[in-house]
Amino acid sequence: MTAVDLGMPRARSTGAPDTAGRPDHPGLIDRFGRVARDLRVSVTEKCSLRCTYCMPAEGLPAIARDDLLTPAEIARLVRIGVRDLGIREVRFTGGEPLMRADLAEIIGLSAEAAPGIDLSITTNGIGLDHRVRSLVDAGLTRVNISLDTVDREHFAALTRRDRLPAVFAGVAAAHAAGLTPLKLNAVMMRQTVGHAPELLAWAIANGCRLRFIEQMPLDADHAWLRENMVDAAELLEVLGTRFALTPVGRPDDPSAPAEEWLVDGGPDTVGIIASVTRSFCSACDRTRITAEGTVRSCLFGDDETDLRGLLRGGADDGEIARWWRGAMWGKQSGHGMERAGFRPPVRSMGAIGG
């Protein structure tokens, strides 16, 4: 296979995956016995915000339109993933998926390709109020909205855009369309951690399930420093100044990334995804497809396997499934942030897809 244009500094497609020792397993098993069942599909590198932990101020280099997977190609991969590889849920990400004018077509064709599968998006919510009905009609079942603060000044500084009212409109529209439970994702940053209790109170008042996320070294500017990161322990201390939190772990799914706490005795909860300090790599069940059609087995592994070339080169579904299985067989054991000499991936989060 040839080198893949990543829309960022180039990483090499490694050719036919090494499957030596792989058991005769139909799913996406790796060398450590993990099986991927959660598919994340990035549909674009474009975004309406410029969050400092995700994108550079000028945005990511544009991916040529012809290099993006088409709706039909995405749907075909969804069908192969669900029918042949054991995928149980699919989430469309970006960049910002709402930047794709054909997002409803992507969702609709995917729903037809894999009837009954859970189809969701991760979005910043901007413009969702104008499009939510068409997305639900196409087959969208859930939505996660990224919202790091409800302080307008801090929001503008963090995202480099003064668009908080538009996000609020998106949250309201998702509720009105019945996309519940509505989850909010918040990356905790040093400049916003003091407002974390306010954000949690807003989420509860507005019927949302909030999950805080430790900032990972996936920023385009490579400015992340562990000593500057707000970790789960510090966040719990800050939230504890206003709320009584009772740990309940992962009651619904032991492989879920978020640990949960009851808020003031419940029934409301808050989750924390402590990717850095409480790694859950050993239970990871995700596989990712980039907007250009490469399999990325791990957020922190730059090895990618090109499926777009197979899709456009006449490969049948069985051949595509074989390459996908091989790509996941080589998944690394974990992100490796605890090791000396750790180096972040070449791609930023915006270029990989959440």
TrEMBL record:
Transmembrane segments: none annotated. Pathway: Cofactor biosynthesis; molybdopterin biosynthesis. This is GTP 3',8-cyclase. Monomer and homodimer. The gene is moaA. Its EC number is 4.1.99.22. Catalyzes the cyclization of GTP to (8S)-3',8-cyclo-7,8-dihydroguanosine 5'-triphosphate. Belongs to the radical SAM superfamily. MoaA family. One of its GO terms (biological process) is Mo-molybdopterin cofactor biosynthetic process. One of its GO terms (molecular function) is 4 iron, 4 sulfur cluster binding. [4Fe-4S] cluster 2 binds at C281, C284, C298. InterPro entries: Aldolase_TIM, Elp3/MiaA/NifB-like_rSAM, MoaA, MoaA-like, MoaA_twitch, MoCo_biosynth_MoaA/MoaC, rSAM, rSAM_sf. S-adenosyl-L-methionine binds at Y53, G95, S146, M216. Residues 1-27 are annotated as: Disordered. GTP binds at R40, R91, T122, K183, R286, T287, R288. Binds 2 [4Fe-4S] clusters. Binds 1 [4Fe-4S] cluster coordinated with 3 cysteines and an exchangeable S-adenosyl-L-methionine and 1 [4Fe-4S] cluster coordinated with 3 cysteines and the GTP-derived substrate.
